[in-house]
Each structure stands twice: as structure tokens, then as C-alpha cells.
Amino acid sequence: MTNKTFYITTPIYYPSGSPHIGTCYTTVACDSIARYKRMQGFDVMFLTGTDEHGQKIEEKAKEQGVTPKQYVDEISKIFKRLWETMNISYDRYIRTTDDYHVEAIQKIFKELYDRGYIYKGEYKGKYCTPCESFWTESQLDENGCCPECHREVTQASEEAYFFKMSPFADRIEKLLTETDFLRPKSRAKEIVNNFIKPGLEDLCVSRTSFSWGIPVTFDKKHVVYVWVDALFNYCTALGFKNDRYNDYDKFWPADVHMVAKDIMRFHAIIWPAMLMALDMPLPKHLAVHGWITFNGQKMSKSMGNVIDPFILSERYGADAIRYHILREMALGADSSFSNEIMINRINSDLANGLGNLVSRTVAMADKYFGATLPKEREAGEFDDELIAEATALRDKVDEFIDNTQLNNALSEIFKVISRANKYIDETTPWILGKDESKKARLATVLYNLLETIRITTSLLSCFMPSEMPKIWEQIGASADDVNYESAGKFNVLPLDVTVHRGEILFPRIDVEKEIEALNAILGDNKDNKDDSFKPEELREEINIDDFAKADLRVALVTKCERVKKSKKLLCLQLDDGMGGRQVVSGIAEWYTPEELVGKKVMIVANLKPIKLCGVESNGMICAADMPDGTCKVIHPDESLPNGSRVR
Ligand code: MSP
């Protein structure tokens, strides 16, 4: 047992409605890491919670005729129930309405003010009078109107406090580009180019136009606006500036903050700046993952209950859901959710892979040896390879956990599970079982399989905590056999181990019937296989010369940013192999700039230049329509040189 500590956090969630599978990803990922670190002997603090202040909450509560506090009390219960359903082992749950947090934020705000980093100024923006809301230019709808009620907005200003960002620009740039703070590192360039290089804007940190927030102690008509309140939860939950807890010295700085890409900027720039302003140590790592998407869009509560984690985990068990979302998401990329992919994944990996390995091995030990293996052994072909792979596994998983690459960790574990299934085919125990003189060899084969199951399931138990103990029971492993130490060793189970046949753990699902059943429960057509898609009518015929007029080329996106004043436009800098060009494209609703940088695109290269929202565009990015009205950019093969012609 080491006395090393490990502190990991999820974002705190807005309690603004029913959570969905997308909401679960970060928490399931952090939970798996927290469990792994506990298994390694670390003293772990795993924090999650709810972000309960702000205008939106105030409005929702009003709509429902309850007080904001009553509203958040109800929704935070739903989150807690979800985490129980998903078997989340958080150590602490913070609610930003908790007294100790409120008191600490007031002190922090005052200290930032006293140190000269917060000053009073004027918040200028677009104001929607009926909605009583300020909007930034980029939040307005395509007609420059209020994104909520689509009525006209006026230029207005309101007294507000601001946090000075500029003193920290250099240090933050170094943090992002010269250290391994940000994961994946590939996001650093984008964030530096888009936000730091153009000059960091000061951040509005107080408001007077609504009251559901933490009051500023020295200027009572102001409430603390969002990010100071939200971000400092990571410290107040440990007892920073309050007496409720006393773990700040023990756990701060955090080892890992995990967030999705939409809140990366707040965590990669604003959060370090605030900590620097208070001379506090910075978190060690910020792990940024993509979104779970549905029909090509970020999954969100408006998409229907087909992705309701309560329903899914009731049908397949929390472990299967946890496994699926962790396995599908590579750090840094989005992952597209569909019930069909999920069910196929459960069938192939959990039913055919792991479940089959366990049931075949236990059944054979039962059949040939009456459940207890004899102690005689006889080594044979294929043993060394299986043993070597199984014993090397723990170190590989350690590394993937430390680099927050959970999909790779799972993939390594399942490689060994596949190897064990192959070992059964290679060693043919059912033939050995027919020959009395091969009993020692058969016992060896079954023992090697039981050991491989023990090692893989010990490691898997951090990702799938509910089902693995049932497997240990079946393979006759005691608690001492399934810890971190023994996961790195072979020959841990007693030679004469006794197995216990039990239930089938991951029964195969009939895909078609299950999809039908899901649709019946959840309403038709909610899965992302949209059969209703009808391609548009073909246009009139052209000859090859007409086509040859369009000059299509491959290009690389080197830089990308939003066009100011437009919700729809992105401005892309391209390496087109001909000196580079700038193209403006109407895809901002479906792509963030970071997603496109470094990708190959196909462009119409000989279009006459035009100006869109005042920005010159030299060509057009090719994209294709999705059934739901969104679109996807066409990405040519990576090996194609920039500038090569598409024919
Ligand atoms: N309250 C802020 C975070 C403050 S942290 C100091 C917030 N809350 S949120 O509820 O809107 O989102 C919480 C997290 O869930 C974010 O990281 C968000 O990106 C993530 N996800 C919400 N939908 C998601 C998917 N569809 N896929 C993956 N993650 C998703 O932002």
C-alpha cells in the first residue's frame, strides 16, 4: 500500500433536465480511472457534482412554478440516482448551492478583487428585452436576433466585474505548448491560435440582471457569474477557504480534470489563469474528450429518450453500457452512438468474447474433473505465448490509464481474451478430455485459461465493476487472488482450484428483435439508422466538359476559426499545395474549429472569390447532406498530396 494520493474530477453538471448517455461518459471514464488507482493502492479522491446557479436555472424554476432551490434539489437527486445506477464510486459530491461553497466563492472573489485581478467595468452586448437576456454576437441566430425567441435585440450595457486575463497569456501558452498538461496535446495549437494569439479578452464574472447566484459581498447587487463559481468547485470541495472539509493540502493540485471539448477553453485558459492569480498550483492534467454524437450531432436531451441511460442499463446492465461507451470513444475524437452498434458490441466482445471464454472454461473443468482440477501438470505448445501475453497485460493497462486512453486499455484486455479463446481452439481440450493419458495436459490447459480469466477480469473490474465478482465466484478466485499485485502474475490460483458453474453473464442479444423492442418502448425511428432518407432527385445530365469546368482539389486545414458575427460560418486556412488560401464555409453548427484542423478536405478551387459576412472566401469546402438536415465534410484519404486534382 502506498500513501500516494490521486485526485480526479468530472465537470459539475448543469441540472437542466434529464441526463443522457452523453452526460455519462466523463463520469464513467473518471470512475474507471478512480477504481484503477484505488486498486493500485492510491488514496483516491473522486469528485463530481452539480453546477446549480445561473439565469437558466432561475428561468426553468419559474416555468415550473417552484423556487430555484426546489428545482435544483429535485434535479440533483436525478443525477445522484443516475450515478448509483451506473455504479459510480465518487468520494464526494459537490453542489454549488452548498453553504460552504458559497462562502468560499465569496472569499475567493474578494481576494481576486483585492489582488487587482477583478475590476468593475461595463458589460456590453446584445440585449433581448422580452427575454431579459444578454447575448454575445456569436450566440445570436442567423438573422442576428435572439437565439431564444428570435426577436430583435438591441445594443445595451450593464455594470459588471471583469477578470483580467492578459497578465497570464504567456504562462498559459507555455503550459499548453511546453508541458503535458493538455491531453491530447494536438488540441494545444488550436487553442493557442484561436484564443491566446489574438489577445485574451477579459472575462465577465458578475451580473446584475438576475439574482440566482452567489452575491458579491462588497457590492450586493451583483451575483458571481458562472465560471468563478463553477471552476473553483474543484478546490472548495476539498476545503479550500472553508471549514467543511480538510483535504486541500492532501489532494490539491488535481491529478486529472476530465472534460468534453465544449468546455476545454474554460479549463485550459480561464481556470489556470484564475489559479495563477491566486498563486495556487495548477492541476497536473486536463484530459479533453469528444462528444458522444447521435445522427452526427452532439447528443443532448432534446434528442428523445432512446439514449436514456436508465432504460439502457435496466435492459443490458450498467457494465455493458459502461463498456460500450468507454470502448467506442478515443480520446480527442467524437464517437457516434447507435443502439445497433451498442448491441453488436455487447454480443461480440462481452457475450462471444468474455462470456464464452468463462462459460466454456468453467463448463469443461466441471465436465472433465467434477469442478476441481487435479494437481498434475504437463506443459505444452501455445502455453508460453498465452502466459506471456497475460502477464504483460497489467503494465500495458497501467500506461493507458496514466495517459487517459481507456479505449486502448480495454482493447488490450480484449486482445488477451481473444488470445485465450484461440488457445482453446489450438489446444482442443475436448479431444484431450477423451484420452485418460492426457489428463495432466488438460488440467494445465484449463488452469492456464482460468488464470487468464483471473488476470483479465481483475483489470476489467475497474471498468465493469458489477459483473466481475460473479466471474471470480465461477472460476474459484478468492478476494486475495484478484488484486493489483496478483493481476501482474501467473500461477496465483491454487493448483487444485474448484470452479462453480453459474449463470451466463452476458447472454447474446438477438439484434433485430432487440432493436424492434427498443423502438417499441422508445418510439419509432429514434435509432440513428434513418431508413427514411431519400436522396434528392438527380439534376439534368451534363457532359464531361461541363464537369471539367469545376476544379476540385485536395487541401489540408492548417487553421480554422469562427467568423465573428456569424453563427454558421467558419473561416479555414488551407494548404492547397499552391501557396495556400482562405475559404469560408457554412458548417459552424456542426463542427468546432479544432475538429477540422489537421484534416484533409476536398474543395471547389476555381470558384470566384466572394465575401461572406465581410470575410473573403476563395472556394468551397465539399460536404454531404445527412438525413436530419445536418451535413458532413468529405475527408479525402490522408495520403493524397495537397493540391492534387479530384477527377
Ligand atoms: N456546468 C458546466 C461545467 C462546469 S465545470 C467547472 C457544464 N455542464 S454540462 O452539464 O453542460 O456539461 C457537463 C459535461 O458533460 C461537459 O463536459 C459536457 O461537454 C459533457 N457532455 C454533455 N453532453 C455530452 C455528449 N453528448 N458527449 C460527451 N460529453 C457530453 O458544461
What layout of secondary structure does this protein have?
Elements (H helix, E strand, L loop, with lengths): L4 E9 L7 H19 L3 E8 L4 H10 L3 H18 L6 E4 L3 H16 L3 E11 L4 E3 L18 E10 L5 H10 L3 E2 L3 H10 L6 E2 L1 E2 L15 E2 L2 H5 L1 H4 L11 H4 L4 E5 L3 H14 L7 E5 L2 E3 L2 E2 L10 H8 L1 H11 L6 E2 L2 H31 L13 H20 L3 H22 L1 H4 L6 H22 L7 H8 L8 H4 L23 H12 L21 H6 L2 E11 L7 E6 L5 E5 L7 H4 L3 E5 L5 E3 L2 E3 L2 E2 L1 E3 L5 E3 L11 E2 L1
Parallel strand pairs: 1-2, 1-11, 2-3, 7-12, 11-12, 13-15
Antiparallel strand pairs: 4-5, 4-6, 6-8, 9-10, 13-14, 16-17, 16-19, 16-25, 17-18, 19-22, 20-21, 23-24
Helix pairs in contact: 2-3, 5-6, 11-12, 12-13, 12-15, 13-15, 13-17, 14-15, 14-17, 15-17, 17-18
Bound molecules: 5'-O-[(L-methionyl)-sulphamoyl]adenosine.
Describe it.
With 647 residues, this protein is an alpha/beta fold. Among the domains are: 336-488, Orthogonal Bundle (Isoleucyl-tRNA Synthetase, Domain 1), CATH 1.10.730.10; 544-646, OB fold (Dihydrolipoamide Acetyltransferase, E2P), CATH 2.40.50. It is built from 22 helices and 25 strands. The longest helix has 31 residues, at 339-369. It is globular and about 90 Å long. Residues 11-14, 22-23, 25-26, 51, 230-231, 233, 259-260, 262-263, 291-292, 298-299 line the site of 5'-O-[(L-methionyl)-sulphamoyl]adenosine (MSP). The site of 5'-O-[(L-methionyl)-sulphamoyl]adenosine (MSP) has 20 residues, from β1, α1, α7 and β11.
